[in-house]
Design a protein that fits this description.
Largest sheet: 6 strands, antiparallel
Structural class: alpha+beta
CATH architecture of the largest domain: Alpha-Beta Complex
Shape: globular
Distance between the termini: 67 Å
Radius of gyration: 24 Å
Helix content: 40-55%
Number of helices: 15
Strand content: 5-15%
CATH class of the largest domain: Alpha Beta
């Protein structure tokens, strides 16, 4: 085997046998294959990729998982995800016209000639949608050289209608259980569910979680709740502070207002322990269910603009990254995907376009969708965002779910206050508090933070923190930050200075 220079960009993420890889590709396609050593691997949250080139201009993608602990996916879990994604892609390619990469070869472990787990697949044609899907907010910095490439509302509607038609195809790819697909001796079988809610954020390490496969959708939703509860008790909460939703751009009049709100939110949460109220998950006893037909369709659990490719006319050319895919209840599949990220609440015109794509495709085949299933799908969207912890505003998702059950606005802070004196709640508070960082460490980080951003911001943050401690129902959401901006503008001028 020829010696390989280890200081090249291509080995940034892992050591592997490039010569063996190129020989494998040549053997599979029976054409000479090369790889540019200076190319820098494209690194995503869970995988890294490089491009292989054949002498006739065809390009393949070599993709390998990133299993560093920082990404929350361990080696064993990564092997399962890789095997399931390969099986899912082959199944979809065989049974539909949905544009997905073609899988040529895969190995789930590093016990192979290349030395790392990997998939060899076709390269997605077109350009990634994220380069053209631009949010609109006054004052938001844009690259003027690319402004002509950004999608108009009509373009976005076209993309969503196509996603609706693709979803209609997925409705027909049904299996008998809820779980993830695997390939065994040329046939496909459903095993444990590898969805984001079961695997991400190191949930893959939870042995107590039932991951199926599930015969009933209620059991599937209950397993997501179980994973969510254990996450609250044992894993870091990061930005998930229930009574302090993270600001979103569309909540504010301008991009400058949004940036100001994010500064104040960061100031406010710096002294706040990163934990949910311990009785929070108790209010999520009911789960949204709605049976529709026999079997469970396949769903892409991470359908973002980063995973969709389009041509110059906004025709979808490929959908990639199916590693967390699984079969799901029909109502979950029919939930309008958020854009540009799954956590983003779809705007009404996007919802309408997506549903139009679903219904028009089905009508051509003489089928219809029960409106009640679409109604449940919106509840499911909030439920999944919340339990997957793939959201920025847990409070708002919880409020929407509670409203769907109670059919009227509820005083959520009051509901929480009424349970603070329960023995089980106080005991759990003590357990969670024991996991908090030492006060000296918290004080040190606070001092470093406010030394950098300004002591005047610290004073305001302290007042809000005091309000939170005195009032369990204090909600630090967009209303607070907009009011504060207006108050400072009226006192000190528009810049608050």
């Amino acid at each position: 085997m020829p010696a390989q220079p280890r200081d090249e960009n291509i080995f940034l993420h892992a050591e592997f046998d490039l010569h063996a890889l190129l020989c494998l590709a040549k053997r599979l396609r029976k054409r000479a294959c090369t790889c540019e050593l200076s190319q820098r691997p494209i690194g995503g949250s869970f995988n890294w990729t490089i491009v292989l080139s054949f002498d006739d201009g065809v390009e393949w993608i070599f993709r390998s998982p990133r299993t560093h602990r920082a990404y929350g996916i361990h080696d064993d879990a990564a092997a399962l995800l890789l095997a399931s994604e390969a099986a899912t892609l082959k199944y979809i390619k065989k049974h539909s016209s949905i544009p997905v990469p073609e899988v040529f070869y895969y190995s789930c472990t590093k016990s192979n000639e290349v030395g790392v787990p990997f998939i060899l697949m076709s390269k997605a044609p077109g350009s990634v949608l994220s380069t053209r899907w631009q949010a609109e907010l006054p004052g938001m910095p844009n690259d003027d050289t690319k402004s002509a490439q950004y999608l108009t509302q009509e373009d976005k509607e076209k993309v969503m209608k196509q996603l609706g038609a693709i979803t209609a195809q997925l409705l027909h790819l049904r299996v008998d259980k809820i779980g993830s697909l695997f390939e065994e001796e040329g046939s496909y079988t459903v095993k444990e569910c590898l969805s984001l809610g079961h695997m991400l954020h190191e949930r893959c390490t939870f042995e107590e979680i039932c991951r199926g496969p599930f015969d009933e959708e209620q059991d599937y939703y209950n397993s997501l709740l179980s994973a969510y509860r254990q996450h609250i008790q044992y894993l870091p909460m990061l930005h998930h502070i229930f009574f302090a939703p993270v600001p979103l751009p569309l909540e504010y009049r301008s991009y400058a207002s949004y940036l100001s709100a994010t500064d104040r939110w960061n100031d406010f949460v710096t002294p706040v322990p990163r934990r949910h109220d311990p009785h929070f998950h108790k209010r999520l006893r009911g789960t949204p269910t709605s049976r529709s037909g026999v079997g469970f369709p396949i769903r892409h659990h991470d359908l973002s603009t980063n995973n969709i490719f389009v041509d110059n006319d906004c025709n979808i050319t490929c959908i990639i990254d199916w590693q967390f895919a699984s079969s799901v209840p029909v109502s979950e599949l029919l939930a309008t995907p958020g854009m540009p990220h799954p956590r983003d609440q779809p705007e009404p015109f996007l919802v309408s376009a997506f549903r139009a794509g679903v219904t028009s495709h089905l009508e051509r085949e003489g089928e219809t969708i029960n409106p009640s299933v679409l109604e449940v799908s919106e509840k499911v969207w909030h439920f999944v965002r919340l339990t997957d912890m793939d959201a920025l505003q847990d409070y708002n998702h919880f409020a929407e779910l509670l409203m769907s059950v109670s059919k009227k606005p509820m005083d959520i802070p009051k509901l929480f206050r009424e349970q603070y004196n329960e023995k089980s709640i106080s005991e759990m508070l003590e357990v969670l508090a024991a996991d908090d960082d030492q006060q000296s460490d918290i004080a040190r980080r606070e001092n470093e933070y406010f030394s950098a951003v300004g002591r005047d911001r610290e004073a305001i943050s302290r007042k809000f923190t005091m309000a939170l401690e005195l009032n369990r129902g204090f909600i630090a959401d967009g209303r607070l930050w907009r009011w504060m901006e207006d108050a400072l503008a009226s006192t000190h001028g528009p810049n608050g200075s």
